[in-house]
Amino acid sequence: MGEILDLAAQNMISPVILSFVLGLAAAFFRSDLSFPEAVAKGMSLYLLFAIGFKGGAGDAAHGVDQRLVSALVAGVVLSVSLPLVAFALLRSMTRVSVTDAAAVAAHYGSISIVTFVAATALLASQGIAAEGYMVAVAAAMEAPAIASALWLVAWRGGGSGERMNAELAREIMLNGSIVLLVGSFVIGWITGDEGLKQIESFIVSPFKGVLCLFLLDMGLVAGRGLRSGQAALSGGAILFALIMPPLGACAGLSAALLLGLSLGGTVLMMVLAASASYIAVPAAMRVALPEANPTLSLSLSLGITFPFNLMVGIPLYLAVAAAFVAV
Amino acid sequence: MQMHQAKRVEIIIEAMMERRLTEALSTAGVTGYTVLPVSGGSGRSGEWSREGQVGRAGGMVAVICLVRPERVDALLEAAFAVVERHIGVVSVTDAQVIRAERF
User: Fold this and answer.
1) The CATH number of A2-25+34-322 is which of 1.20.1530.20, 1.10.10.10, 2.20.28.10, 3.40.50.1400?
2) B92 to chain A, closest Cα gap in Å
3) The domain spanning residue B92 has which CATH number?
4) Which of A84, A290, B59, B68 sits at a 20 to 30 Å CA gap from A171?
5) pTM for this entry
6) What is the band of A154 on the pLDDT scale with cuts at 50, 70, 90?
7) Distance from CA of A9 to the nearest CA of B (A)
8) Closest-CA distance of chain A to residue B4, Å
9) Domain spans of chain A?
């Protein structure tokens, strides 16, 4: 227990978390601090490229082997099944409609790449290595949850949800963040350590600084979202956003133990399963389930679950994983 | 200078629907439109702002078309088929244009 608290305390006073807290505080106190959309988008592209490239380069020594395929399959199974759990919880804990519950559930089946990036930064600071292909698992977990949500709406008769047609599937699969993450992973995988050395000064050294700025922006967006969306949040919904991450992490832990992942890989699998999307899924939901309330989904995933995972969840998952997996 | 009657249709629509809308307009025979970014606003769905946003989900765009009055119904039918279920505003105002052959 003491170790967990130490780690959580260390995490809380890291530049990354303090930057996020600064953003939250600035938003709550109605500061005019803001990032232009293009700057936020640019930082997000940088982080996706860097994390994808480093993951690919780290995994370059291995071919497409059984471990990678098994991890991808596990990721897809988690992404498909977690929305079912989230949907059942939401319907029992809140009074939200079938459509809203399905839309929120899709967010929780998918992943938050920024939480994943923050977890890799924490692992790096602790000197814990992780399987490079977890980046590919992250990309594979972005979309399947959307199909689950649409199926839930069709099954429970939640209105006129769009069916998963070829155009929607193409938009989801070719979402910019997925393309960049997978593409940079492949480039890193092809070019390996030699490729990484060539651009190391760009994607390794400045990484944490950019992450700090990006999380400052995320803090601003989360804080403003919470402020404007608080009317949409009931006590049950808030409770859901706090208990769903540990439940997802437990599912991720089970999958990681079955796969025999390293300590770092186990933590990342837990983080992926515990996190909720606020980039890829919201966009897909606006097309597929326009009747769903976007304020509810984003307030829960970005306003509550994201800060929870960032400040409490990641160190907690690391401590739990360390109890199960030998270093 | 000679001026001609026209209708200015302004559609504020979720950014994610931009391509679907412009394709529908083209299919309906609209020969030109302008897409403008919208930085923020407020409505039945609450306040929103593009500041600091990474994804397009929370964003809106304005699609503006100038058409001859007799073509406005076809345009609105095509547009409405796309925007009906989505957050947004459709408005039509009278306008005057100088080069009628372009509309």
Assistant:
1) 1.20.1530.20
2) 24
3) 3.30.70.120
4) A84
5) 0.88
6) confident
7) 28
8) 38
9) 2-25+34-322
Look at residue A160 in the predicted model and tell me its pLDDT. Answer: 58
Flag if A290 and B86 touch (Cβ within 8 Å).
yes
d(CA A211, CA B34): 36
Token pair, residue A207, equals: 């990484």
Query: What does the DSSP assignment read for A169-190?
Result: HHHHHT-HHHHHHHHHHHHHHH
Dihedral angle at the C-alpha atoms of B72, B73, B79, B84, nearest 10 degrees? Answer: 140
pLDDT of residue A159: 60
Using a CB-CB distance cutoff of 8 angstroms, which residues of chain A are in contact with residue B50? Answer: 37
Tokens 């345009």 correspond to what residue? B75
Interval A125-131 mean pLDDT: 91
Q: What six digits make up the tokens of B44?
A: 């039945």
ipTM of the shown complex = 0.76
| Per-residue pLDDT tens digits for A162-181 | 666 788 888 888 888 889 99
pLDDT band for B95, please (50, 70, 90 cuts): very high
Say yes or no for a CB contact (<8 Å) between B51 and A280.
Answer: no
DSSP-assigned beta bridge partners for residue B11: B63, B90
**How large is the average pLDDT for residues A312-319?**
94
Name the residue among A228, A279, A290 with its Cβ closest to that of B55: A279
- Over residues A200-241, the pLDDT tens digits come to 999 998 999 999 999 999 999 889 888 877 877 899 999 999
> With b meaning 16 or more CB within 10 Å and e meaning fewer, what string describes A176-194?
bbbebbbbbbebbbebeee
Domains in chain B: how many in total?
Answer: 1
- Give the integer Cα–Cα distance in Å for B7 and B93: 6
- Whether B58 sits inside 8 A of A41 (CB atoms) is no
CB contact under 8 A, B58 and A282: yes
